[in-house]
Specification:
Length: about 280
Amino acid sequence: MANELSGTTALVTGASSGIGQATALALAASGATVALVARRHDRLVELAKRISADGGSAIAIEADITDRAQAEHAVERAVEESGRLDILVNNAGMMHPGPMIEAPASEWDEMIAININGVLNVTRPALPHLVAAAAQPPRRVADLVNISSTTGRVANPGTAVYSLTKFGVNAMSESLRRELLGDRVRVALVEPGRVNTEIALHVREEVKERLAQTTPEIEPLHPEDIAEAVLYTVTRNRRVAVNEILVRAGDQTWQPTRPAGPVRCSGSASEAGGVR
């Protein structure tokens, strides 16, 4: 698989850490030139150097994808520097769990801006390039992969707005899948369960304390586990379309185990992925 994606270009959002970083490394190791998109430029540069040292090729592109102009520029720069775009992985996301009755509206705005608008802002300018790549060698197929969540399937208490965004991504993915069938652009949905990433570091302190009490016995997935699912999806023969992959931690259930005592946001961390 080392050179399976040679001659292709992939763009990964949220590439500065976690699932995005792991996915970028996996795609680069398989031969793709990877456009690394995120807000933390220093981390992107460091990751690009790591990929280069391993014999791969990467482009560090600082962008806030909640800003449509920046998202469009990121896509265009990736195409300008590499000549094409074969794979888009919409990974950037934000989770603010907790009861809706006490959540600041600013948290809702942030999740909608990143989880929904960010996906739309990058996907729209990328589509023409994906269609063009699918009509050309070396693969004659292109891939759009949206990273969702188990909360895009089941909405648990404390995940109302986060689930709203992920159910929306799921619906958009299915609609796009059907729109792009004739263009050989495959649309896939990867739904992680509990993954050990930085996503939980951005929540309020009182929410962190509640999350720590929720399902502590679950061994979380690693970002590399999700990267493997993405890589599997985009390296199938062009006759194969893997449209949905659900990846949960081995001991993760649909309904989380409630900790002893009253915890108002109990369940918000489990099927949202704990830290996903």
